[in-house]
Amino acid sequence: MTRHLRRWSLLGRFLGIAALGLAIAIVAGPIWVPAIGRALVLDDCRVEQGSPSAEVLAVPASPWLSDKPSFARLTRAAGLIRDGRASSVVMTCPALYGVSGCELAQGQLTARGYPRLPMREVPLPSSPAVVEARAILDEVSRAGAKSVTVLVAPFEFRRLNRVYRLEAAKRGIKACVISVGD
C-alpha cells in the first residue's frame, strides 16, 4: 500500500512541477518568444553603425493597409533616408478604393513629423512575392542603382530574403534584406 502512495506522490509532484513550468512559460511568453524569433532571423546586412547603406530602399507591399496597421518599415525607411543611408525608396503601392498606397504612406509619415520621401511608386495589385520582387527590382534597375536594401516584416524575412537575393543577383544588383518589426 505504501508503494502505491509513493508512486502517486511522485506523480503528483511531477504534474505540479510541469504545471508550474507551463504557467511560467505562458506568463513569460512575451519575453522569450521574441528572443527566439530574433535568434532565428538571419540578418547579415548590419554594419557597425547599426544600419545598412544602399543606393535605394525597397519596401514591399503595404502591411499598413490592414486592420492593424504597422508603420515600422515606413518610419525605418524615412530614418535611413534622413541619415543619408539611401537616396530614394521604391515601394509597391496597391490602390485601395482608388487611392494609392504610396500616397497613404506619405500622408502617415508627414503626420508623424517626417518629410515626404523621395519615392518611386510601383503600382501593383496584390500578387505573389516573386512577382512583387521582380517589379520592385525592375524599378531599382531602371533607377540605375546597383544596391538595394529591402525592408520586410519579421514573419516574412526568411522567404523574402531568398526571393529578393535570387532575383537581384539575376539583375546584377546587390540586395540586403532586413527584418523590421514593431
Task: Describe what you observe in this structure.
There is one protein chain. By secondary structure, the chain is of the alpha/beta class. The chain is 48% helix and 16% strand. The strands form two sheets. It has a five-stranded parallel sheet, sandwiched between helices. A two-stranded antiparallel sheet has the order 3-4. Strand 3 and strand 4 form a beta hairpin. The radius of gyration is 23 Å and the shape is elongated.
Count every helix, treating DSSP H or I runs of 4 or more residues as helices: 6
Structural class: alpha/beta
- Major beta sheet, strand line-up: 5-2-1-6-7
Write down the Rg.
23 Å
Could you give a short account of the major beta sheet?
5 strands, parallel
How far apart are the first and last residues' alpha carbons, in Å? Answer: 59 Å
> What percentage of amino acids are in beta strands?
15-25%
Q: Please provide the count of β strands.
A: 7
Report the helical percentage.
Answer: 40-55%
Poorly predicted tracts of residues: none
Helix and strand run: HHEHEEEHEHEHE
Average pLDDT works out at 78
User: How would you sum up the global shape?
Assistant: elongated
Name a few traits of the molecule.
alpha/beta, five-stranded parallel beta sheet, two-stranded antiparallel sheet, 182 residues
Architecture blueprint of SSEs:
Layout: H1 2-27, H2 29-40, E1 56-59, H3 72-82, E2 88-92, E3 95-96, E4 99-100, H4 101-111, E5 119-122, H5 129-142, E6 147-152, H6 157-170, E7 174-179
Parallel strand pairs: 1-2, 1-6, 2-5, 6-7
Antiparallel strand pairs: 3-4
